[in-house]
């Protein structure tokens, strides 16, 4: 269990000994003798190859996979060792092939990787699924390199199980500041909006993302998991590729980000994680999500650029005021 003493202003989520005992008791393992009627909204503390044998066929709407990248890395008590690219592809195939039977015909699949593992992901993923795109997102954290370019991006390969799939493009537009506000002949804003918080345009999403903030010590969503993905990143994928009530499956769920975001957005989830401590962190985060539905960078049903918190607050106040006025009009009627 991680035991570093946090700094005074550190808001990262941790577990006390009592909480670890409490949440550990709620975790499950699947077996022949412990088959559940439903695995929906469960965190499974188990090796993926052991658990997958007891999961129902064709129950997944969205498969999100953030596997260990092909680098030597320690995940609490579990270590992953770098291997050559062919062996890494074989390892990917060993468990991805087992997941294909769990997918609905119209399901979507996202698989994360870095520049070293990306080619293996494409090779194995395209063996089973249809390749749609590769998202590259900026990871602004990271150390500089004296003899190489700084590594500050990651990939997410987008696959689908067939040509029929969900993609809600209007749910994942990015609100950007308008620097050159064009107007039509009547002087009305052309393809942008205007209010007291500024001039903005809701842009169609591209496959280059530079609006993502990595969780760090001052953010409540941050945990001690070394490769935790941001809630905002998962929110984009989930909103784009699912509808309310759909099921999201994550076989390397870590500290629970996928499940937490799915819950906040009204989706169902199933997650598998080998490490007990991370599973317990996931359960604590899910408990907190009962009353806190906020996702940093997602406000007013739209995604915002980085460093726009003031504008987001202003917009939220405007929307709240409009809602109050509307309620008053409704009461008068």
Which topology does CATH recognise? Rossmann fold
How far apart are the first and last residues' alpha carbons, in Å?
Answer: 60 Å
- Just name the CATH architecture: 3-Layer(aba) Sandwich
Residue share in β-strands = 15-25%
Helix/strand/pairing class, anyone? alpha/beta
For the biggest sheet, the summary is: 8 strands, mixed
Can you describe what's shown?
By secondary structure, the chain is of the alpha/beta class. It has a single domain (17-332), classed as Vaccinia Virus protein VP39 (Rossmann fold). 28% of the residues lie in helices and 22% in strands. The chain has eight helices and 15 strands. It has helices at residues 17-24, 48-51, 85-99, 118-128, 231-241, 257-264, 276-288, 309-332; strands spanning 42-45, 60-65, 73-75, 78-80, 103-113, 130-138, 153-160, 174-177, 193-195, 198-203, 208-209, 247-250, 268-273, 298-299, 302-304. An eight-stranded mixed β-sheet has the order 1-13-12-2-5-7-6-11. The protein has a five-stranded mixed β-sheet with strand order 9-10-8-15-14. It has a two-stranded antiparallel ribbon with strand order 3-4. The longest helix has 24 residues, at 309-332.
